[in-house]
Amino acid sequence: MRSLNMSNNFLLAPIPESADYIINRDVKIAVLGSSGVGKTAMIVRFLTRRFIGDYESNTGNLYSRLVHLEGEQLFVQIQDTPCVQVDSDGSLVSEHTCKYIEWADGFLLVYSMTDYNSYRAIQVLHQHIRKVHPDSKVPVVIVGNKGDLLHARQVQTSEGIQLANELGAVFSEISTSENCEDVYDVFQHLCKEVSKLQSQYLAGEKRRGSLIPRPKSPNMQDLKRRFKQALSSKVKSTGTL
Ligand SMILES: Nc1nc2c(ncn2[C@@H]2O[C@H](COP(=O)(O)OP(=O)(O)OP(=O)(O)O)[C@@H](O)[C@H]2O)c(=O)[nH]1
């Protein structure tokens, strides 16, 4: 488990109508968690810096934003995933969840500190992610939200840390309502990790590409020699030039 501690060098910009610049990377993030844990609130906080108290129940909105991060321009898409319910046998009920898991490059798994069941759902979600993306490098951040509601706490910080340790994920306990910077750091970290992974993948592809021998193009000397040969055989057969 690694905890988040980052300077805030994350700038947001709306996507301009005429995109006459190069977008370096596509980053797809899925935000997953049980109902009411604050998924929409977190995304809206990240995109607008504002905390808005109440939202319609989420039906699967996709948000996009151009983000400048350490000299790169990232086209970030964030999928607000409709609430995930976990059956008594631990299986996922939501029909769209697997589709979103397949689509995404990085995951934000959110539980509420005031709801133990939402914490339990994280492990099940993580298992599904690992099934779909067996490569253990896929970046995952686990967030314990509603850190301001201490009187209603059901999940201890140590339990969040332990879970993240077990799953090899990054952990952060935050309050979306009280602290915008922490929300920022979570998204920033995830974007950075996805972008890093993409760079590594591209570098690997390039290396593999350079190992495939290229077909040799004939050089000029070779062409001249072949031309002379053809010419002299013509002279021999006709006896004239
Ligand atoms: N006190 C407190 N309330 C929060 C926090 N984050 C979200 N909420 C509230 O929790 C409720 C649920 O937030 P949503 O963002 O709609 O939760 P959701 O996970 O998107 O829920 P679904 O749409 O059902 O999937 C709202 O009333 C939010 O205002 C927080 O950090 N602290």
From TrEMBL:
User: Which catalysed reactions does the entry list for this protein?
Assistant: GTP + H2O = GDP + phosphate + H(+)
Q: What is its EC number?
A: 3.6.5.2
InterPro entries linked: P-loop_NTPase, Ras-related_GTPase, Small_GTP-bd, Small_GTPase
Matching Pfam families: Ras
What does the record give under GO molecular function? G protein activity; GTP binding
PROSITE patterns given in the database record: RAB (PS51419), RAS (PS51421)
Looking up SUPFAM superfamilies in the UniProt record yields: P-loop containing nucleoside triphosphate hydrolases
Keyword entries, A-Z: GTP-binding, Hydrolase, Nucleotide-binding
Can you tell me which family this protein belongs to? Belongs to the small GTPase superfamily. Ras family.
The protein's name: small monomeric GTPase
Gene encoding this polypeptide? RASL11A
